Amino acid sequence: MENLMYFFLLDIPRAAMIWSALIVVALAAMAALIARRPRPEAVDAGDVLRGAQGGRLRAAVAGRARLTAEAEELARYAEEVGVAATRAAETARRRREEWLASQDEVEEAWKAYEAADADARRVAATTYLPVPRTPRTPAEYADRERYLHRAALSACGRQELSVWELSNALAHRNGWDPRRHPVEQEVVLRRAVRDGRLAAQRRAAERERAAWHTAEAAAVAAQSLRDEAFAATERARQAAHLLPPGGGTGNGPTRDVSRRPQQAARWRAARAG
């Protein structure tokens, strides 16, 4: 037992030296590792800085792309509305020409009615004189019937009587009496022509009013499209100005309608007397 204690006490200093040497080596290795490892604070700051710059760049690129897409869409819409406004203006011009032509038709129909009315009055004035007496024989009535047919056919050939009125005259309907004296038949014929002219003038006036309404609606539609084209072009120009340098739409310059077009003309239909 004493020998064991003796050897144990002799080994303690050597063990302590070995443990001390191991601790020194471990400490030196840890110091070397710590010295070679970069500082966490510096690494984190650099990553954060680069991440922030990248985020701002991506946001700028996305914002530029969005503005460019919006500007291109507005430019396309302005171009489409401009084309529609041009077509509507052409349609309004044609409708106005049609309305002016219908006005001329009304004037011509009115002049024709006035001439027919003057003829009817002139022929009617002859009825104030006594009708010549003729023998009422079958031959006389046949001559009167032939006169009525020839007069009605001539009037229809001059487009003074309609085909319907001619058929009535030939069939002796609707007041056409072949037994009347030729003077009386001429009065009836002139009155029928006058009535036909008046009806034609009224139909022409109805067409003129319809053409005026059509032309007015076309003018309103054209003016509305002009205003929309002007507003759309202004929106497209403002969107293009918001783009950064070099961020054009790629579709060339926007249609130039910066000046507001003149108001579409309004027309009033001339009324025949």
Question: Could you describe the 3D structure shown?
Answer:
- The chain is rod-shaped, with a radius of gyration of 53 Å.
- The model is unreliable at 247-273 (pLDDT under 50).
- The chain has helices at residues 2-36, 40-125, 138-157, 163-170, 182-241.
- 22% of the residues are buried.
- It is mostly helical and 273 residues long.
- The protein is built from five helices and no strands.
- It is 77% helix and 0% strand.
- α2 packs antiparallel against α5 and α3 runs antiparallel to α4 (163-170).
- The termini are far apart.
Q: Helix tally?
A: 5
Q: What general form does the structure show? A: rod-shaped
Largest sheet composition: none
**Helix content, binned percent:** over 70%
Structural category is: mainly alpha
